[in-house]
Amino acid sequence: MTSAAPDVRLAATLLREALGDRLLLPGDPGHAAAVRLWNAAVDRAPALLARCVDAEEVALALRVARRCHLPLSVRAGGHDWAGRALRDGGLVLDLTLMRRVDLDAPAEEVTVAGGATAADVLAVTGPHDLVVATGVVRAVGMAGLTLAGGYGPLCGRYGLALDNLLGAEVVLADGRRVTAGPGHDAELHWALRGGGGNFGVVTALRLRTHRLPAALAGMIMFPLDQAAAVLRGYRAVIADAPDELTVMAGFLAGAGGEPLVFVFPTYVGPDPAAGWPWVERLRALGDPVVDQVAPMPYDEVLRMFDGGMVDGNHYLLRTRWLGTLADAAVEALVDAARRITSPYSTLALHHFHGAASRVGAGDTAFGLRADHLLVEVIAVWRPGDDPGRHREWAERTSAALAPHALPGGYPNLLAPAETDRVRLAYGDNWDRLRRAKRRYDPRGVFSAVPTLPPSTPSPPPGPGPG
């Protein structure tokens, strides 16, 4: 934040007075658990952790950090694989106690506190047959997901999570609290929808809800030797898919440890039964060994992924955007599945189309609005295992997909060092996003999340890595 030396002792004194035992220092009871993330590969040592309960406390913590020259990070859901919620020697603004969810069913919107997860929100909206656009994992924080994008099973019908952000309460770096929306701080509202946690601390989000009593969804899995045919057939299905149908695909470990290729349709039309012909078309891609498709509440759709990402394992992610699933990309994915180094590792393809693709390219900061697939390469290993071969598998897979990929990549998944791809990810929105950064965070306080580097000048346009 400045070149002055951090004054941790003064910051601790000031924050302890306001927060009491909700200020955690190394050695305090609860500190070890509070700095433990889902990805156990992350090993950071923040100097202070402030467990805030409202926007006023967040504002106080920001003012103390500024006065005491402490670098900052913000922990909401804490599901960023790179561990950017924690910062060595810094002050962590921990929002995990801020999980209130207030539903206004007649207005078809819900107000969600900054630390709330998808599970928290669906627990409130579900009894009213209402949903919000989420990712595929219930434990992910809604703020981090929404600010950078939010691919999920409702993408085709309702867009990305960020497309459903009606407004946000934000505490800026100087401690000021503002409400961003179409009618007030509209430029901040634009930047928040895709620009990530680079402009302030979002302490509340106002999200659009959608009526959805049930979805037709579930896992269909096929043997690995059918993977190429299944993926080519999947390509044909998603080319025809209506908005109501969003289909995830990829590779997961089967009961015996060998990877299986999967497709995961989610049909969310007014009549779930209208999705059965699409399910039958997907079933016919091969000889299913698992078939779990059924009508179910949306919360149950996401529960089917609860066991996939286990707290305490070590994770490394790589990502690519594919404009089409070309035969060469199919071959690269199948080869990667055959070479997979861990029964916990996964390849996932997220389907972007429909309502999400009809949002104007400049209407939000999110940079890619053409139909595409988001590929997640998720290397996972147990603590104590040598990480080298798992990392090499992820890097090799990403490199094999690169010749077939679009420029840039999903900023929420890019590695901290991939700043060149970040710039390409935002496309024509990059310069406007940089101006918003200078306007709302001119001192670069929010620099722990490097999707928008705070100090380097904008590079000239030109080609770059995929």
Automatic annotation (TrEMBL):
Taxonomic superkingdom: Bacteria
Pfam families in UniProt: BBE, FAD_binding_4
FAD-binding PCMH-type domain: residues covered: 42-212
InterPro entries the UniProt entry points to: BBE (IPR012951), FAD-bd_PCMH (IPR016166), FAD-bd_PCMH-like_sf (IPR036318), FAD-bd_PCMH_sub1 (IPR016167), FAD-bd_PCMH_sub2 (IPR016169), FAD-linked_Oxidoreductase (IPR050416), Oxid_FAD_bind_N (IPR006094), Oxy_OxRdtase_FAD_BS (IPR006093)
Span list, region Disordered: 444-466
Cofactor(s) listed in the protein's UniProt record: FAD
GO MF term list: FAD binding; oxidoreductase activity
Keywords carried by this UniProt record: FAD, Flavoprotein, Oxidoreductase
Sequence ranges of Pro residues compositional bias: 451-466
Family, as annotated: Belongs to the oxygen-dependent FAD-linked oxidoreductase family.
Name assigned to this protein: FAD/FMN-containing dehydrogenase
